[in-house]
């Protein structure tokens, strides 16, 4: 049976747009283009962001957590933000956008 993908709501798209402004301070590329944001779900103003980091024990994890929370909560209609940090599926460079790969000099 085929999976049915649910289209993101406008509010969820607005959160993703806000997250595209959150830069990884080490790489200078935003979280969305790096492929670190796996999903955004908004229910009654409460935002749940499922994401990962490039490596377990990432030293800037706390900085990114705070920046992501602030960006999401700055979106009109978002009253709170929770981050679900996951390690599966494992992040790798295939999750990066073409923009991020070009900016980092990665040629596949």
Short summary:
This protein has 108 residues and is an alpha+beta fold.
Describe what this molecule looks like in 3D.
This protein has one domain (10-97): Fe-S cluster assembly (FSCA) (GMP Synthetase, Chain A, domain 3, 2-Layer Sandwich), CATH 3.30.300.130. It is globular, with a radius of gyration of 14 Å. The chain is an alpha+beta fold and 108 residues long. The chain has helices at 10-19, 61-73, 98-103, and strands at residues 37-43, 46-51, 80-85. The protein contains three helices and three strands. It has a three-stranded mixed beta sheet with strand order 1-2-3, covered by helices on one side. The mean pLDDT is 91. α2 links the parallel β2 and β3 (80-85).
| Strand segment count | 3
C-alpha end-to-end distance: 33 Å
Structural class: alpha+beta
The largest β sheet comes out as: 3 strands, mixed
CATH superfamily: Fe-S cluster assembly (FSCA)
Question: Which architecture would the CATH scheme give at its second level?
Answer: 2-Layer Sandwich
H/E element sequence = HEEHEH
Unreliable parts: none
What number of domains? Answer: 1
Keywords: Methyltransferase, Transferase
GO molecular function, one term: methyltransferase activity
Protein name: DNA methyltransferase
Pfam families: FeS_assembly_P
Fill in the keyword field for this structure:
single chain; 108 residues; alpha+beta; GMP Synthetase, Chain A, domain 3; three-stranded mixed β-sheet; 3 helices; 3 strands; 27% helix; globular; DNA methyltransferase; methyltransferase; transferase; Fe-S_Maturation_MIP18; methyltransferase activity
């Amino acid at each position: 049976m085929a999976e049915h993908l649910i289209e993101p709501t406008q509010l969820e798209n607005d959160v993703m747009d806000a997250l595209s402004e959150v830069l990884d301070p080490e790489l200078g590329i935003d979280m969305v283009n790096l492929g670190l944001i796996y999903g955004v779900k908004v229910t009654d103003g409460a935002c749940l962001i499922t994401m990962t980091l490039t490596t377990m024990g990432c030293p800037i994890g706390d900085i990114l957590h705070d920046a992501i929370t602030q960006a999401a909560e700055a979106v009109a209609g978002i009253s709170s933000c929770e981050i679900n940090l996951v390690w599966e599926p494992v992040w790798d460079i295939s999750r990066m956008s073409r923009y991020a790969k070009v900016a980092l000099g990665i040629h596949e």
